[in-house]
Write a structure and sequence with these properties.
single chain, 166 residues, mainly alpha
């Protein structure tokens, strides 16, 4: 790791090896905060699998060229982001970096879901279109349970900076 930036006010406490002990994060608190309910993961996975199945195998169509391929691509991205959000972060050595990774994963999921919804807006036909839209709504509802986790992660990160100023 590079030299600690003591000359930058407030940033020395962010450094993982802060020798004065200020701003250090309790790794057990972070570990507990990063636990995502396995029931939520199961629901998110089921909703995503249902939407992916309809996007690939269902009868959903568009009068515009390339829309269904774009929807399928966005579906895969959402699945990757869900997996990333629910992944174990113990391989990341510093608790602060674990929190930042979790927040980045949550943001990426939100962005990918928005892109999927925009792409799905181009679908305009097929026998499974209504079912696909319903499954996307269910996926959006499941993803709507992420903000409280994000808030907790942000609070933990903010507390590090507040402790450093005190």
């Amino acid at each position: 790791m590079s030299e600690r930036p003591d000359a930058w006010p407030g940033l020395s406490a962010c450094w993982p090896d802060s020798s004065d002990g200020t701003g250090t994060m309790d790794s057990e608190t972070v570990k507990q905060a990063l636990v995502i309910d396995p029931g939520w993961v199961r629901l998110a996975r089921q909703a995503w699998l249902a939407s992916m199945e309809l996007a690939v195998w269902g009868d959903v169509k568009s009068s515009r060229l390339g829309v269904t391929a774009r929807v399928r691509k966005r579906e895969l991205e959402v699945g990757e982001k869900l997996k990333s959000l629910s992944a174990d972060r113990t391989w990341i050595p510093h608790p602060r970096e674990q929190l930042k990774n979790a927040l980045a994963s949550a943001l990426a999921l939100r962005d990918s879901l928005g892109e999927l919804e925009r792409a799905a807006g181009g679908l305009d036909g097929g026998a499974d279109l209504d079912a696909f839209i319903a499954v996307l709504d269910r996926l959006r509802h499941v993803a709507g349970q992420i903000p409280p986790l994000e808030t907790r992660w942000v609070q933990l990160l903010d507390s590090q900076y507040h402790e450093a100023r005190e």
